[in-house]
Design a protein that fits this description.
The complex is a heterodimer of chains A (466) and B (458). Chain A is an alpha+beta fold and 466 residues long. Chain A contains ten helices and 18 strands. In chain A, the strands form four sheets. An eight-stranded mixed beta sheet of chain A has the order 5-4-3-2-6-9-10-11. In chain A, α5 crosses α6. The relative contact order of chain A is 0.18. In chain B, β10 and β11 form a beta hairpin. Chain B has 458 residues and is α+β, with helices and mostly antiparallel strands. The two termini of chain B are 34 Å apart. In chain B, strands 5-4-3-2-6 form a five-stranded mixed beta sheet, covered by helices on one side. Chain B has a four-stranded mixed beta sheet with strand order 7-10-11-12. In chain B, strands 15-16-17-19 form a four-stranded mixed beta sheet. Chain B has a domain of 318 residues. In chain B, α4 packs across α7 and α5 packs antiparallel against α7. The chains are: A alpha+beta (466), B alpha+beta (458). At the A-B interface, α7 of A face α7 of B.
Chain lengths: 466, 458
Amino acid sequence: MNSQRPAFLLTAFLLAAITAPGALAQSGQDGLRVAATRVDITHGTEDVRPSAVEYEHERLYLRAIVIDNGASRAVLIGADLGGIADEVWDDASKRIAAKLNIPVANIIISSTHTHSDTPASETPGPGVARFGTDFVADVALQAVTDAMQRLEPALMGYSTGEAYLNVNRDAVNPDTHLWTQATNLDGSSDKTVAVVSFVRPDGTPVAAYVNYAMHPVSGYLAGFQSGDFAGATSRYVEQAFGDRMVTVFSQGASGDQNPRWLRTGTNAMASRSGAAITGYEMVREDIEAPLRSRAVAAKDIDPEIKRQLAGYMQAQGIILGEEVIRVMSDTEHSAVAAEIWGKQTMLTCPGRRRLDSGREGMAGEYEDGDDVGIRLGVLAIGDIAFGTAAGEIYSKIGLRVKQESPLSKTLLVTLANGRGTTGYVPDDESFGHRTFQVLGTRLKPGCAESGIASAIASLLGEYLAQ
Amino acid sequence: MTKTTMKAFAWLTTAAMSIAFAGIAQAGPLKVGAARIDITSMGYPDGNMPERKYGHEWLYVRAIVLDNGESKAVLIGADLGGIRPDSVYQESSAAIARELNIPVANIVMSGTHTHSDPRENRDEAQMYAAIVEAARAASANMQAARVGFGEGKVYLNVNRDLYSEETGDWTQAPNPDGPSDKTLAVLAFYDMQGRPIAGYMNYAMHPVNGYLSGFISGDFAGAASRHIEDAFGNGMVMAFTQGASGDQNPLYLRSSTNVMAAAIGVPITGFDMTREAIETPLREGLVPRGENDATMHEALKRSMDAQGQILGEEAIRVMTQMDHLAGDVTIAGQATTLTCPGRDRTNSDAGRAGTQAVYQDGPDVNLRLGVLAINEIAIASVNAEIYNLIAQQLKAASPLSNTMLVTVANGRANSGYVPTDDAYARRTFQVLGSRLKPGCAQSGIVNTVTDMIYDYVD
């Protein structure tokens, strides 16, 4: 990897507005109306033995929140999936936009990024999508259509809390002195839990939209289907309110963020590969690599090890869910008929093509590649800004987006509106890390960090200038 | 009595009653044994134990015995509100000391302070027997060992002294801006192959989740211990000890409050509800208590379990990364009594918190302080519920960076809570109920324990 930062790259990004709106923000006279729905998308439901589904996070859902201000509408969709491919997003968002007569930019479709959305006992190759276009688009449209039937008056609020469950994962292995993926307590990590909540005039909740930055990798290669902590969080909050509301979990800037504790997940991999389990934290990469590369055959997970992992996912969901409820409890909700405004843009950055291979811990060799685009967006509802990025964004970029936003109530939803084609999106400083995320990115350094922050701030400037 | 005079008085008394470190501590090869005795049946004297699902529904006394050939020490941790009455501590520590031929100062005996132990069925004879038996079983199981100390962080606790804007007075509720030490300290003992024999963890958070819940539980503390023991195939013992948690509650008490609410017919909103408003009528017996709602009951047990898992995972992370393990160690204990001027409240009927308390001079308060030192590790102890800043000050002042403060240890003082001096301005129930006059305990504890550690180091 060339660690030099070519000066021209600093100014090389190009912003090209796509998909419409430029339209004026619209607000009605009678306040907001909101509805939310949840559709079970658990794979092979008919094949899942009831005894195998002990934990709520073992069922996957697609959730939708529809917000209507009388003049326009916005849609927030979250799915317990690893990702949603660009073509899937394109199909789904266009069909929903047509159905609701709104711009595509008024819709956010994101995934929780669970790494265990695969059918039980399967060990898919990296990046293999489970669902086809038809499935997700159909379900998303079904969810929105259903919600539209049940719109009801609601108040909206935004507030934040903190959860100390995540940790930076770009680390230097103290034994090998090489970069690897492991816990780095000193690295950048945003603990913010942002919650946009909608309540009825009587105060009962209709829906919540949660944003937190942490990779749901506990169940990766574990051999059972799960929405991980993200799904557990959603279900915990929903059940706390008697299953009479919907909680969408959206992924924050988690490109370099893992759970602080992955011991039980690593044990699950060890159980499947036959590695001895010590009880201590084991070096995850040593256990994961042979399973990931299929150098060893994956066995069924030991039921007790599965129970420990599933219980731990649930525990994370309970803690994060409690913080969400605590935040919601302290949130002041407004009855104002908030404006709804959305716009998307494509940030184009210089690309690179890797010439060598090897996952991490080495200097990558590159040649110039095609430019790469990162789809960005802003959906503004009143004074709340949902920034979006179709990619896996590093923590410092998320922090910078919030810092440079003209609206203090800004959150950044990643893996939103497609997966993008860039690979990970590191901040400039992190390009010096020889981690697999950095080595694998198609982005040259010097463009994305400032480009994303500037573009989202610029879109919000447009919104506020109206 | 002025603050200065009280301080001098405390020091004089301390000096007079100290049991000093005996001579120069000699290092020797460490041997460690550990044992766990199930005391759950204490809560079910009729023998009808309900079906249990979560680890925290079992209660244990845990013992770790250390021996370096020259001297021995014993660490006892129990899933109990405390080792009380004080006579249970005095008699059981004396018995252990006799049996192992060690000074009582080499024993640290504490409760996790769970608020859902069998309070009404605490059998003193059974407690005594379990404690002595745990120490005996541990000492019968000694093996060569190495010891280490590490610290992590857990963000589950929160300060609980809050000035309520609603009522215009002090109450018990989360105060994110108040002092709160997130440190999880872990003392761990490993066999010569690196497998854990035992652990001794210290974190400051009141186990009040199960208070008035109607079921018996070790709360998050018991859950944490069982989570770690389970992770290592139950081949080790992990004792949980309470840090300076006099003003520290769990950040999340919603599911606990919901159980109380359901039991007295208060509608559950799903949101955080004002705990004090729901707890008070139940605590004071002002309303009849109904049966637990099954859903709320289960949710609370899951919440306790979740907190235990998070705490347990951090402890295992700390144990995994622990280095500088020592196989040759010194073991030395010292105990003393800090005496402070006391007060008696004369208008207790005026209210638990948020009211003006009236006091008259009362009998002196005696705080039992101790230090058990293992190499460069200091386990300080006090037999009361200490405000968090006091431990933070102690750890900052200690000449040993590896210092923890175990509270609710070695019996129970006649002090009530031990607030910091500045906290006396707060009209919380802990402060109003404290039998300590301000100006003595905070500096007295910090200075006395620090001096004891210096004495050991010197």
